[in-house]
Structures are given as structure tokens and as C-alpha cells.
């Protein structure tokens, strides 16, 4: 809150009209007649969320010309065939809002003058294109992460259920973390404590947060499953192997997760929005996964699944006979207590 750039930005947003800074830029890429250019500008200005359209043919509002270009105008009117033409479209809404993104789609849907192509730029257009780029590739990335994680855990545990359980619980942790980030940074809760301006979340930071938190969650999952599997392979039944594995890894996982989480949460003291978002989100995800998720749902679901935890199709089962269970320990034999010797030998003979 004490940074000069931050104070300047807040003052400008509160006291001055920011409509011009959020204007969209529409450029036609080829020659067009003056009448075609004017008709295109009129159609753009008639959109409900457009305040005005400014270009070489004048200023248009509500589908009609408001200012005629001339020597006193903003631009000289170019003749036909003079190359690309730029239009400035001022929206009525916040450039990061859903309405502004919808406006970009409506502008792109309007036909450009014959023989030309209309290109749309500006803050809202950049946001729309960034979301489209991330959204187009995100299903592929999600599929690769899920399949790779499932294959690695399947080869490690020789179980069909345990990898599915790990992926489902990791997804549950991520959903909780992303929901908390929306509640804090987009809805504006705790903004006075943390010192940030609420607004829509960045397009790329949730993806980065997803990858880091998911990777750390799988890491802790491997720690826990390794000890449980070792106990089960040694001959313990399902319930005892869960107890043994959790007892051996509980303190390590909780301590390691707490150290990493508090280190990441310290980024929340920064005055940089992206650092705050990443630090608090990753720290909360690690803390939630290393304590609550590993301590309650993981052993509870494995206890309910019973023998299904270790089932796999025959091709995926380990080769060779299963290790024989360890025999129970033999009872401890105690030596009989020697009878005390008689003090009077003569009485013993009688």
C-alpha cells in the first residue's frame, strides 16, 4: 500500500476517467472505400457496450456520426485506397470484465469492409486471446499429467485403485485451493490485511499453481504409499500396514509440509499481487495436503477399500509367488522357579 506506483494507480482509478485507456483497437488490413469504412464504424458504435468509436471518418456514437472530421477534428480523413485504417472503440464496461470479453467477440463477429480483414487489439482482446490459448491446451496438459501420474503410481504400487485414489484426492485439494484463491483475491476478502486491489485472477497463475501443488501432492502421496506397501509386502494385513505406514511417515510428511508451507506463505507479505497469489496458494495447498488430506481421507479410504487396495489385473501383478507372511513370534519360555532348600537337613530325611 505504501508503494508510489500503487498509490498513483489507485488515485487515477478513483479520480479520473479511465475509459480511453481501456479502448479497443480495430484495424482494417486493406483498402476500403470511405463509405465502407463509415458503415463499419457505425455498426461498431451501435453495439450496446460501446461508448463511442473514433476514426479517420469521425466520431460515432449509438450508430450515428457525432463529430465530422476536418482540420479541427482528431484526424484528417484519408482518401480511399490509402491502406489500413485504425478505429478506437471505447467500451462502457471494465476491460477485464466478462462483458468486455463478450464485446470483443461481438466486434470480431461484425463483417469487415469488403476485401479487408478487421483485427482487434487492446486489453480486453489480449485477455480473450490468452484465455483461449490456455484453454485450448489445458485439456491436453491435464490428460498428460493424469495419465503419466496414473502410469507411474500403477507401476510403483502394482495396484489399480491406489493411483485413482491419489489423483482424485489431489484434485480435491486443488479445487479447495483454487476456491480459496477466488474467495481471497477475486472477491476481495482479506484485501485490507494483505494490501492488494481485488480483481479477476490472472490467466497463467492458476495453471502454474495447479502444476506445482499437484506435483507436491503426488510427492507426499508416494512417501506414504511406499511405507504402507512395504508393511503390506512384509506380511501385515491391510489395516496393520496402513497404521504402520502412517506411523512411520506422519511426522516426516507433516514437518516437511509445514516448513515448505510457511516459507511459501511468507510471500503473502509482499506488495506484488502475483507473488502474493502464488505464495499463499501454493502454501495453502501444501499445508492442506500434508496435514488434513494425508491424515484423514487417505487412510480412511484405504481402510474402507480393504483388499481392493492391492488388486490389479493379472498382467500387472508382480511376477513370482507372493512373499509368505511372517510367522507369529514364539511364546517366551520362562525357567521354573527353583524350590528353596530346606534349612534343617535332618528334618528333610524324615
UniProtKB/TrEMBL annotation:
Transmembrane segments: 138-155, 167-185, 205-226, 247-267, 273-293
InterPro entries cross-referenced by the UniProt entry: MMPL_dom (IPR004869), Mycobact_MmpL (IPR050545)
Cellular localisation: Cell membrane
Residues of the Membrane transport protein MMPL domain: 92-313
Keyword presence, Membrane: yes
Gene3D superfamilies: Multidrug efflux transporter AcrB transmembrane domain
Residue stretches of biased makeup (Low complexity): 332-350
Name the UniProt record assigns to this protein: Membrane protein YdfJ with MMPL/SSD domain
Amino acid at each position: 500500500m505504501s508503494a508510489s506506483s500503487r498509490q498513483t494507480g489507485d488515485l487515477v482509478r478513483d479520480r479520473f476517467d479511465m475509459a480511453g485507456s481501456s479502448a479497443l483497437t480495430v484495424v482494417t488490413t486493406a483498402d476500403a472505400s470511405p463509405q465502407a469504412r463509415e458503415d463499419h464504424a457505425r455498426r461498431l458504435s451501435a453495439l450496446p457496450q460501446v461508448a463511442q468509436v473514433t476514426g479517420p471518418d469521425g466520431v460515432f456514437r449509438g450508430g450515428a456520426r457525432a463529430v465530422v472530421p476536418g482540420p479541427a477534428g482528431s484526424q484528417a480523413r484519408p482518401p480511399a485506397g490509402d491502406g489500413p485504417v485504425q478505429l478506437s472503440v471505447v467500451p462502457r464496461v471494465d476491460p477485464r470484465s466478462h462483458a468486455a470479453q463478450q464485446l470483443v467477440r461481438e466486434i470480431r463477429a461484425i463483417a469487415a469492409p469488403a476485401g479487408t480483414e478487421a483485427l482487434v487489439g487492446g486489453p480486453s482482446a489480449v485477455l480473450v486471446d490468452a484465455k483461449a490459448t490456455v484453454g485450448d491446451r489445458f485439456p491436453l496438459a491435464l490428460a498428460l499429467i493424469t495419465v503419466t501420474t496414473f502410469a507411474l503410481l500403477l507401476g510403483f504400487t502394482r495396484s489399480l485403485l491406489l493411483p485413482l485414489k491419489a489423483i482424485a484426492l489431489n484434485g480435491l485439494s486443488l479445487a479447495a485451493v483454487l476456491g480459496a484463491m477466488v474467495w481471497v483475491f477475486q472477491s476481495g476478502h482479506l484485501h485490507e490485511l494483505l494490501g492488494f486491489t481485488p480483481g479477476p485472477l490472472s490467466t497463467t497463475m492458476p495453471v502454474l499453481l495447479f502444476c506445482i501443488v499437484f506435483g507436491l501432492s503426488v510427492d507426499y502421496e508416494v512417501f506414504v504409499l511406499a511405507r504402507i506397501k512395504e508393511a503390506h509386502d512384509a506380511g501385515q494385513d491391510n489395516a496393520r500396514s496402513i497404521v504402520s505406514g502412517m506411523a512411520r511417515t506422519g511426522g516426516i510428511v507433516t514437518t516437511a509440509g509445514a516448513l515448505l508451507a510457511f516459507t511459501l506463505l511468507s510471500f503473502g507479505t509482499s506488495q506484488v499481487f502475483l507473488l502474493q497469489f502464488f505464495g499463499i496458494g501454493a502454501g495453502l495447498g501444501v499445508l492442506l495436503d500434508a496435514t488434513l488430506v494425508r491424515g484423514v481421507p487417505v487412510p480412511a479410504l484405504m481402510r474402507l477399500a480393504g483388499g481392493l487396495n492391492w488388486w490389479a489385473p493379472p498382467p500387472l501383478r508382480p511376477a513370482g509367488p507372493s512373499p509368505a507372511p511372517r510367522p507369529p513370534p514364539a511364546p517366551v519360555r520362562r525357567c521354573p522357579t527353583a524350590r528353596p532348600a530346606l534349612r534343617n537337613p535332618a528334618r528333610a530325611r524324615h
